[in-house]
C-alpha cells in the first residue's frame, strides 16, 4: 500500500525488492490527462457497493462465530446475539472429537509446506532454465506445459486416482502432495520474472570468475528472484490450503484430511440421522481456516502485487 | 504498489539479443528436469492412461474388454451428459460476463485516480480470493437459508417471502453468485495490474488529441489490456466447465435441486466413485476436456486477432 506508484515507461532505479531504493516516480498523471483527476464521491459510493458485497459474508462469518448453536438459530445474522461465545467456540473447535481440528490444521500445514514449497522450488528452477538457457527440447517443453494448462484438472482426477491407487499412494499424504508439486502458472510467472530480474551480464561475470552453474544459481540468481518467489509461494499456498477436490478423491481416512475436507465433513454431519449438529463449530472453524491466509496476503502485499504486475507485463 | 522494474544493470541494448548461453547445452535440463519429471507423472501419464481406459469396458460377464470408441458414442448420445453441459454453458454465458464486467469496471475505477481510499478498496475486494471454496460455499449456504439465514432474516424483518435461493429454479444463480464473490477481486487485480503498466506516453498523446476520459478508456486502456482480458476469459471458461466444488458442497442443503449429474464434472465424479464406471467416466472426461480446449483456443484466436 505504499504510495510509490511508478510508471513503466522509463527505466527507473530498481524497485522490485523494496521501493525504498531510489526515488519513486509518482504516477499522478498530472498534466497527462486534462487537469488532475478529481476524486469523485459518486464513483467511490458505487465501488463501495461492490466492497459491501465482498465484505458482508466475511462480517457475517465473524459475527456468527461469536454465537452458540442456539444463538445461530435465534438471532439475526448480521448482529450479535446475547451471549458472546467466541472463545467458547474456539476452544470447542480445538477440542471437539479429541482435537481432530488440530490434526487437520497440521495436515494442511504439511501439505502446504511440502506441496506449495515444492511447487515453488520446481517453478523457480524451471523458470530460471527457460529464461536463461537454451537447451534441446526447450520449445517442446514450453508448448506441452502451456497446452496442458487448458486440460481441465478434474479430467485428470479419475485416472490420477486409479494410477495412485495402483501405486498404493491413495489415502496417504503423498496422494495430495505429489499432484500439488506442479504449478504451470508458477512456472510461467517465474519464467517472466527471471527474464527481467537477472541481468545476463551478471551471470557472465560470475562465470568468468569461475563460479559453476549451481553456485551461479544460488549466489547470483536466487537472491534476485526473491519477490517473484514470494508471489509464487503465496499463490501455490492458497491453491494447496484451499484444495478440496484432490483430497476428496484421494483420502478416505479423516486422520489425513486437510481443513477444507474436515469442515465439509462437520457440515455434512448435521445431515446424517443422529449426527451431532455443530454449525457453530463449522463456522468458527471456517473463520480459523481463513485467518492465516488473509493475514499472509495483507502482510506480503508489496511482494505479490509486484510479482503479479510482472506477470501482466508479458501478456 | 511498485511495478516491476529490471534493475538498472539489466537495461538491454536493443541491438543485441539477450545473451543466452552460446552453445546448446544440456545444462538447462538440470534446472527444468525436476519440474518436467513431476509434470510427466501428474499431467501426461494420467492423460495417456485416461485415453487407454476410455477404450475399454468393464462388464459383469466377460470382464474388461476392448470396445474401441463405444464409450465415446455412448457419451455423445447420453442425455445426462448433454443436460449437464447445457447447464454449465448457461452458467458460463451469464456468470462470466457479469463477473468480468464488474471486475473490469472496478479496475478502471481504481486506475482512474478518482476514488477515495483506493488502496483500501483494492485490498478488501481482493480478499475473498484467499477464502477456500469450501468456506465460501458453507458461508453462502448458511446465508441462503430461508429459516435461519440472512434470507430468513429479511423475510421476517420485512414480512416478505423471498424465493428460496436453493430451490431448483434458483440454485444455479445462487452458485453463480458464490463463484462471482470468490473471483471478482482476483480478476480485478489482473486487470488493474495490466492497466498500471500502460506507458504514460500514450496518455500524453491522448491529451494532445484532446481525448476525454471515456475516449481514453476505449481507445487506449481497453486495447492495451486485451491480453489480460483474453487470459481472464479463458481461465473463467475453464473454471465454469470444471464447476464442481460449489455444487458438491452445497448439495447437502439442496439435495433435490442439485443432482449428482448437475455439472459434467459432478457427473464424471459420480460415475467413477459411486457407479464404479471408470472407463465410461474417462470417456466423458476426455470429451469434456476436448470441448474446453477447443473453446479456450477459439477465444484465444479471436481475442488475439482483433488485438492491437
From TrEMBL, chain A:
Keywords of the record: Cell membrane, Membrane, Transmembrane, Transmembrane helix, Transport
Gene3D superfamilies registered for this protein in UniProt: MetI-like
Compartment(s) of residence: Cell membrane
Protein's UniProt keywords contain Transmembrane: yes
InterPro entries attached to this UniProt entry: MetI-like, MetI-like_sf
CDD domains xrefs: TM_PBP2
Domain (ABC transmembrane type-1): residue spans on this chain: 105-300
Polar residues biased stretches: 1-18
Extent of Basic residues compositional bias: 24-34
Region annotated Disordered, chain positions: 1-34
Chief subcellular location: membrane
Domain of life where this protein originates: Bacteria
Transmembrane segment boundaries: 40-63, 109-131, 140-162, 174-195, 216-241, 277-300
Membrane topology recorded in Swiss-Prot or TrEMBL: Multi-pass membrane protein
PANTHER family reported for this sequence: ABC TRANSPORTER PERMEASE PROTEIN MG189-RELATED, ABC TRANSPORTER PERMEASE PROTEIN MG189-RELATED-RELATED
Assigned protein family: Belongs to the binding-protein-dependent transport system permease family.
Protein name: Carbohydrate ABC transporter permease
Organism in which the protein naturally occurs: Streptomyces phaeochromogenes
Organismal lineage: Bacteria, Bacillati, Actinomycetota, Actinomycetes, Kitasatosporales
